Every structure is written in C-alpha cells, then in structure tokens.
Records
---
Amino acid sequence: MNLPFSVEEFFRVFELYNLSVWPAQWLLYALGIVAFIFAARNTNSSGKIISLILSFLWLWMGGVYHLAFFTATNRAAWLFGPMFILQAGLLFWIGLRMAKLPFRPRPNAYGIAGAILILYGMVIYPAIGFMLGHRYPAAPTFGLPCPTTIFTFGLLCWVDRPIPSYLLVIPLIWTVIGSFAAFQLGVWEDIGLLGAGVTGIALILRRSDNRS
C-alpha cells in the first residue's frame, strides 16, 4: 500500500507538533505516570482517575495531533481524529459514568503483560527510537498515537473484569494502521504496537470468555 506522504513529510509532522505544543509533552508523560501510580496503588478512586486520564490522552491525540497537525499531510487524519475522539468518549463513559474499569494489577499473565506494555510505551519505545536516530523534535513522543495506544493496551490488561468488546475496536484499528509505519516508514519501534495489539486483545478477550 502506497502512503500519500513521504518519510520526510511524516517526521516533519512530529517536528511541527512537538515544537508547537511544547512543553505539553511533559504534562502528557506526567499523566501517564499518574495513571500507572493509581493503578499500582488501587485506591477507591483509581478506576475513575485512570479512565479520565486515558480519555484525555485519546481526546488529545484525536483533536490536537490528528486534526490540528496530521490532516495537513494525510487527509485520512480527518477520519482518524473523530475516531480517536470517539474512543475518548467511550473511555469516559465506561470508566467514569459506569465505573466499569477497575484497574487492579496482579502477579499473573495479565499483570506481567500489562507492565511490559506500559514500560514499552513510556520508556522502551522512545529509547528504541533514539537508537534508530529518531531524535526530538522529529520523533514521536508520549501522547502521540502509537506509544499511547501501546500504553492503553497495557492498562486495559490490568482491568480486573471483562471489558466491553467495543472498547477494543478503535485501538485494534489503529494497531493495524499504525503498524504500517514500522514497515513502510522505518519507524521500527512501532513493531511494539503490533505486539501490544495482539497480546493485549488476546488476553482481554480471554478474560471475558473465562468470566462469561
């Protein structure tokens, strides 16, 4: 599949985004850390706080990255933006309004997989990118679609109850779309997105089957 933009144009979007929103990247990264801490502590308010953070991150990706920046390079971003905003609404509704996302990491396959994906999205992803020569500002930072989708899959692995299957549809769609970057644009850190999608969805659906 031929992409409607070049490698240089693709990384130029990251550069324009990072320079324009600075220092918002620090806030987005801090929100990821806060979500991780609340999940690990498992307080009464953890589920709603984490859901609110995830909802904000998906709203940011849809409204700020896709609609405000990526549309100038790829017209498909006019579709991606609303899609991500819809995912933000689903996370808000299910996690806050319905309170159906209790995040409780446990020492089992779900807990280990979730921890690996969270670590990959926040630490390993940018480290691999740096080693491959993807240097700031022309590099994907946390709060952008691929690393944040990996991070989302990690947290959803920590939800201690079956998750509505429709909550996984948009992350799965982006896993397929975003994984093309690894093979066609040389963003090899995005291979982790494919692994996150396969692992996360398999485990989450398995949990649903076991409790149905």
Note: The chain has one domain: 7-210.
---
Amino acid sequence: MKVALIGTHATGKTTLAYDIASSLKKRNFNVDFLGEVSRDCPFPINEDTTKSAQKWILLTQYVREIEKEGKCDYLICDRSLLDNYAYYIRKFGESKELEPLILEHMGSYDYLFKVPINEKYLVSDGVRSIDKEFQEEIDCLIDKLLQRFDIHFYDYADLEKTIEIIERGR
C-alpha cells in the first residue's frame, strides 16, 4: 500500500510521514519511507528552479517509488508527483510531455493526505524557501491540480484519524 503526504513545502509533511511510518511499524507492519527528493537535487530549486531541476525531481521521485513498491506492506512518501509538478507549473507552465506520466502515476497511490500550511514550519532549513507568498502559490496550484485532475485525497487532520483511514483500507 502506498501513501503520500501532499502539499507545499514547509508544512510538516516529513515529520508527519515519519509519525505515520512509526505508528504502522509499532503495529508490526513492514514500512518503508521515501523522503523529499528535491533535497538531493543537483540543480537550483525553489523560486530559482530550472526545467532540468524539476524534471530531475519528478523522475527521481518516480524511479525511487518504483524501486520501493512491493517490498513492504506500506510505502510512506513525503510527496507525490503531483505536488512536485506544481513547482514546475509555477515557473514554466503546464507540460504536455510530463502530464500523462504524472496522471498515470497518481493512480499508484492508495491514499493521499493533503497537509495544510502551518506557519510554525516555515523556517529556514538551508534548503527550502521561506517566502510565504511562494509557499501559498504552490499550495494553491496543488489544490487546482487536484481539482482539475479529479484526484481523491483526504485533508490531513491528525495521526490517529490518518492511521484509522489507512488501516481501514487493508
């Protein structure tokens, strides 16, 4: 089963993803975690991103998910291809080249949980932008993509409710 936390940067997705993974491990499930690949990107990210950077991020996420799928009961992803695509759209507009891949791959997630903006997480970590306007633009683009592509997701509420939803689907 594959679960992705989606949303803009600096919302606490990583912390929540670790919490979900830990909770499932405590229930004796085999769990793997895929962190945000943009931190490994060899090209500029955030507001100064390039097409090469965004394609690298999208395709690396895609490959790493494929590598991990089927090797565990649960794969917890600290992103999906859709939210990565929002960064691409903000800078370069829609890509008829990338969209079919993204749409096909979005069907591989069993659950998507959208994490809302939480100002306490918008702090400098040396990697992600701390520009609130940029963060809000990406969040709005993600919402538009979810609606445009009619993708089902849950609003993240709390850990126990999330685990309950995930376990119900087993």
Note: The two ends are 8 Å apart (CA to CA).
---
Amino acid sequence: MLTIFAQPKAFKGHFGVIQRNAISQWARLSPKPEIILLGGEEGTAEIAGEFGVRHVREVRCNEFGTPMLDHLFEQARNHASNDILCYVNADILLLGDFMGAVKRVSAWRDRFLMVGRRTNLDLDVPAIYELPYNEPRLRALVQNKGRLAAANAIDYFVFPRGLFASFPPFAIGRPWWDNWFLWQARASKAALVDASEVILAVHQNHDYSHLPKGQPNVMECEEATRNKKIAGNSFRTIEDATYKLSANRITYNFRHFRVSTERAVLPRWTAFLKTSGPVRHRLGLRRSPIAGMVGRIRALATR
C-alpha cells in the first residue's frame, strides 16, 4: 500500500534517540508500510537491520555532506515496492491515524499531494509510547505540552510515484524545497490536501548541531540560500491546500483564495500606500482612495 522513505542523520546523542523513536513508531503502523532508510550515516544500517526495514546506502550529497533531493527521491522511486510514497523527516512520529488517511486520499484521487501541520514536543525517551497501547498517553502529552507549528513547516509528503518526473537539486533538510514541492503540486493541478485535522504528526524538538556552526536559524545557512535561488518565487504553505481532509469527508478549501490574495496583492498595495502620501497631500485627500478597499479586504481575510 505505502512506502515510507527517510534520510536519517547519524544515530548519535539526542538525534539517535529521537530518530529511533520515530522509526520504531513507523514500523508499528497498521497495515504495516514498507520502510526505506536512505544514506550511509552512522548507525543507519544497524537500525534498518534491527527493525527489519530496507536500507539504500547510495545517496548523492553536496560538498557539505547534505543529501540532494533529486537523487534521494529518485532512489526511493527506484527501490519502492508500492505506488504510493511518503517522504518523512526522521524525527517525526506518525501515529495510528496515518495509514487510514493515506488510504482515503489515495482512493479518492489519482494525482495528489497530502501534507499536514506538525506539533512540536519535547520528548527524549520512548517509554511512554514504545507499545501500541500507550498511544493514548502520547496523545495526552501532546495535548498538554505540544505546540502546533507554523503552516510553512512541512515534514511529511504523501504522493503517487509518478506525480512528478524529476525534482530540482535542492539540499534536503534545508528551507524552501518543501514549499516548492507544494507550489509544484498546485501548478501541476494535483490535489493539494491538508490532513492536519486528521493526522497527528509529532515533531520531537532538537537542537541544530547538524548545521554549520550549529546555527539555530536554518534560514541563514548557505544551503538555504542556494535552495531559495532554485525555488525562486515558487512558494506555497499548507494554508494553500486546495482540499482539507476531515474525519468524515474531503472538502474543497475555499480559504486558499484568501491566502493567495494576501500573499500576492496586499504587500504591493501596502508598498503603494507608503509612497502615496505626497500625492494625497497635493490632491487634498486625507486618505488614499484605495485605502478603504484594502481595509475591507483585510477585514474579509480575517473572517
């Protein structure tokens, strides 16, 4: 039914703990998916052997040692046994609601990209959820201490094998490529489905020691700059989803029109208003003739 693939970092220290947490959780999903771990980072082969999942060592990297998206996804397509694929970051816990959501969306539409917002949580040890019947305890912990991440942070992507023929050479795990992926789905007329209401995806908080100089702001690294150059203006977030998955149905998301309007139109009008003061003064106008229109649009956008 589904092939989950991921590219873990080295299984050392805190990253080793949270990645092992995540992979052990994927291996307990029902029905059980095929799991492929890609890359030759320390401990990956051993973890693959422990959980009985596949390991593909060969992944092309840049000069920083960061895997390249185009080759990573090509390797996944070449080795996957299923037609529905899921790339997920190796620090994300996927729970019992995940496989049912995949089944519903893949049966509904041939061409789709399913994504969803994550919930951030400090979680170091696996004892609370190392057995399937402990999932309610984990959900309770998320309810009490978790924080919903922003809509531009995307950590899992479910899509059919043939959705795109190829991918640009983005650096994986750095900004912009995930937002480009959503933009490309929209541009190709695939259904972009927000499954946040149904799928609880738990992001285990971590430091950023894997970045150059341990930069807490991933946007500042050189690889992010390169990714941004490749992506250009091709940027979308989960708020741009054209459909929403709920417990009972899949509905069209009319709110994505509001998001697109705010992103494309309002910044330009705001810039115009900042420069229109002298013109208004000469014409004897106390207020820009389009200021009221901007205000009305903002009011509608917040409904």
Note: The chain has two domains: 2-252, 265-301.
